[in-house]
Amino acid sequence: MANILAWQDYFIQIPVSDGVTTLFRVSGGVDEFGLVGVFYQGVAVRKPSDPAAYASINLTPICWPRIPYGAPNFHERTKTAIMIPATFTVETSTDGGATWTGLASHVIYPDWSYGTDAGFNIYRTRQITDHFHWKQVLFHTQTSTPPASVTPWRNDGAGNVNGTAISMSGGGVASLPLAQFCTDKTIAVGFGQLTWRTPNHCAPGALYYRNPFGGWDSFLVEGSILASSDTERWTRTVRVADNTNREARAEQNYVNEIVQRRTLSTGPLTDNESAKMWYLLESPDVWLHDFRTDSVVPVILDDKSQAVKTYKTNGRRVSVYTINCHIARTDIRM
Questions:
Q1: Which of 248, 259, 109, 118 is nearest to 193 (CA)?
Q2: Would you kindly state where each structural domain of the chain is located, as residue ranges?
Q3: DSSP 8-state secondary structure symbol assigned to residue 214
Q4: How buried is residue 326: exposed, middle or buried, by Cβ count under 10 Å (0-12/13-18/19+)?
Q5: What average pLDDT does the segment 89-98 reach?
Q6: Cα separations (Å) of 226 from 95, 221, 263, 309, 320?
């Protein structure tokens, strides 16, 4: 059994014989509806120019849609079992599928770091900054047990106070809503293998996102959150008009599609923090927590490119990022 990162190619060798049709199938993982079992079946064919008695199949692209993802709990102090690496099993048949023989089983991690950092480390959370707000949600992600639990702690200026431990049996992502644990007097928080030591209790919100290592992280937005909207009006024109009746006007606005947009400004970042901003900016799964309304909504990052700002390359100015996004929902008005 091999451990594989999702970005890596991994070829399996399926034995084939001349004159015999060899089928193969792959099972494991879970789909978007929570279904498990066999999800792929094909015929193993050797390249005509290859004298070897086997066919090479790249396993990872076949398994990508079945690698488990999902969102953690943003409202409760609990563990969500969404980040367990998936085990995939390959079987073969030479009698048309009447009987199947196990060939190999492999574990695939939902890691898209392209070799940058985490490898097969059980801890998958990687914070960008150590800044926090007492309404923020923090995360701890691990792929297996041990450790059997994680215990959050806080310091209000008079020593550490431990909270209730969260069981990590089987791995997953643990959520810690600080509003259930901290106060606006808290000066430091620890959770799992990470520590947050810079409180900013005036920040307007935070971004929660799946990082490239398959774990979940929390990033405090310390600048501003500006709201705007785009409205697309759908109209139609009728030949015979009665302007006293809305349904019979010459030109009718029958539906509006409204996209809610947000422009986020980060706080000042160090060169080391800027170098890790791609963890967030390249994520396909991002949620915005607005502390003013206490709402957590999925968002789509609109920016097509990302700059790694540093003190020197940014004209020796403090590095601040502007992030444009929109709420992942179109509002309809009829």
A1: 118
A2: 2-109, 131-226+259-333
A3: S
A4: middle
A5: 92
A6: 63, 12, 5, 22, 15
With a cut of 80, say whether residue 102 has pLDDT above it. yes
Instruction: Name the burial class of residue 11, with classes exposed (0-12), middle (13-18) and buried (19+) by CB atoms within 10 angstroms of its CB.
Output: exposed
| Cβ neighbours around 197 below 10 Å, total | 12
- Asked if 212 and 113 touch (Cβ cutoff 8 Å), the reply is yes
Confidence band, pLDDT 50/70/90 cuts, at residue 81: confident
- For residue 301, what are the β-bridge partners? 325
> What number of other Cβ atoms are within 10 A of residue 73's Cβ?
16
The CATH code belonging to domain 2-109 is 2.60.40
N-terminal to C-terminal alpha carbon distance within the chain: 56
**232 pLDDT exceeds 70?**
yes
Per-residue three-class SS string for 69-91: CCCCCCCCCEEECCCCCEEEEEE
Residue with tokens 């099993």: 89
pTM for the full predicted model = 0.89
Token pair listed for 160: 């550490």
179: exposed, middle or buried (C-beta count within 10 Å: 0-12, 13-18, 19+)? middle
Instruction: Show the CA angle centred on residue 194, arms to residues 69 and 86, nearest 5°.
Output: 25
140 vs 250, which has greater pLDDT?
Answer: 140
Dig out the tokens for 49 from the structure. Answer: 């120019």
Interval 281-299 mean pLDDT: 95
Helix (H, G, I), strand (E, B) or coil at 278: helix
Q: Mean per-residue pLDDT for 9-32?
A: 87
Largest CA distance in the chain: 81
- At residue 99 the predicted structure's pLDDT band, cuts being 50, 70 and 90, is very high
Mean pLDDT of the residues in the chain: 89
Nearest 5°: the CA angle 314, 319, 321 is 110
Burial string for 78-94 (b: 16+ CB within 10 Å, else e) reads ebbebbbbbebbbbbbb
